[in-house]
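Subject: Sanity check before I submit

Could someone independently write out the C-alpha cells for this chain? I want to compare against mine line by line before I put it in a report. The sequence has 217 residues.
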Amino acid sequence: MSLLNTPTFKLLSTTSALAVAGLLTLSSPASASGGDADHDGMPNRWEVAHHLDPHRANARGDADRDGLRNLGEFKRGTDPRDEDTDGDGDDDGDEVHDGSHSTDPTDSDTDDDGTPDGDEDADHDGTDNEDEDDATEPCTADDDDADHDGVSDEDENEDGTSPSDSDSDDDGTDDGAEDSDDDGTDNASEDDHQGDDCQGDDHGGDDRSGIVTYVVR
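---
Independent answer below. Compare away.
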C-alpha cells in the first residue's frame, strides 16, 4: 500500500488543509486593515492615523477647513487635521489652489530664498500670500494660535514674537496685548478684519459649532 493512501497520511493532509484555511481566515481582518474599507481612495491606516473614520466615505470632507479636501490631503502628503501642514503661514488649500503662487504645502520655503511661503507676495499686490484670503475667509479666527496669546501663528514672525510662547519677552504681558510696531494697536487686533464672523473666538480652538458656513474650494 502506498504511504499516500494510508489513513494516517489522509488525516494529516486534511488537518493541514484545515489549518491553512484557518490561518487564511484569521489573517483576512489584518489584511483588510491595510485596505480601503469604505472605498473612498484613502487607505484605512492613513485615515486612522489622522483620526478620520475608515468606515465612512469622507474623501470630499475637509476636516481642518483649509480648502483642501481629505483626499487631496492624502495625495499631497499633508495633514488633514492641520490647515497649515508646513507652518509657513499659508493654508494648505491656498498653496495648492491659488494659481498666483501655487507653492508646496509640505515645504515652508518652496523657492529656498530664506522667506517662508506665507510671507512672499507672489502676485506683487502688496499683500503677503498668507493674508490673501483674509478678506474672504468666513472665520479668520480659525488660523492656528498654538500658544493662545491672541496672535495667529502666521503673524508672530512679523511681530518678532514666538508662536510657541505666549509671552515671548517674559515681561508678564501676553504677546497679543503687546504693540510690537508701536502704532497704537495691539498685536492681537492687527489682523482683525471687518466681516470676520467669528471675532472673539479662541484662535485655533476646537469650538467650530457650525454657526459659520465654510466654503470648500
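---
OP: Matches mine. For the report I'm noting this point. The CA atoms of residues 94 and 182 lie 31 Å apart.
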